[in-house]
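ok so I'm stuck.
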Amino acid sequence: MLNKYARAFFTRVLTPFAAFLLRRGVSPDAVTLIGTAGVMAGALFFFPRGEFFWGTIFITLFVFSDLVDGNMARQAGISSRWGAFLDSTLDRVADGAIFGGFALWYAGNGDNNILCAVAIFCLASGQVVSYTKARGESIGLPVAVNGLIERAERLVISLVAAGLAGLHKFGVPGIDVLLPIALWIVAVGSLITLIQRVVTVRRESAEADAAAAEAAAPQSAPHMNGNAAQGDENAAQGNESAARGSEAS
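replied:
not stuck anymore, here's the structure
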């Protein structure tokens, strides 16, 4: 849902910066790689230590690379299948690092196995949610549903909550509960989104199979009619031969 509104806004805001990078000879692929490396470094260095505020600040500096690289490619007229593949693949890597960082915290000093499991579920379900749409589209289905929580929602909910929860170390009481709440929201929302997409793919595949069967039916009907006509002709010839045999005897 956020993709529809936020992406257009941030694209306009980041267009001058994207143009600046192009003038300096920076390629979109380089921005994609640097952005992913920054997100991974921030998530896996700060989050397992419980430094959620500074980790979120660090990650935010790099997370917008996902918008900048595509903007640069469009401005330079060099959009390609390879660029789209690289961007999508590294998005999954960055997401895994963020929720992996949360899981490492709760498995270690955070000392909460349930929240560790929830963070791992957020990681896995986010990957599968993306896969269901990509796989559905690869077999020719439109997958005409976005779902309750997509990648943008997962990142905004989790990172905003993590940043605010990090203020607990600056003396803000009780605010650290925001991160567990956010993880549960993302987990439940991702599960709902997964179900929505699976149901949509099942419905669309059934409709596509029915349409294909209906299209094939008129083509097989003339063939069957031709076989029937040939059978009638053979039967008629057999009856004529039998009549001639009777006459001869």
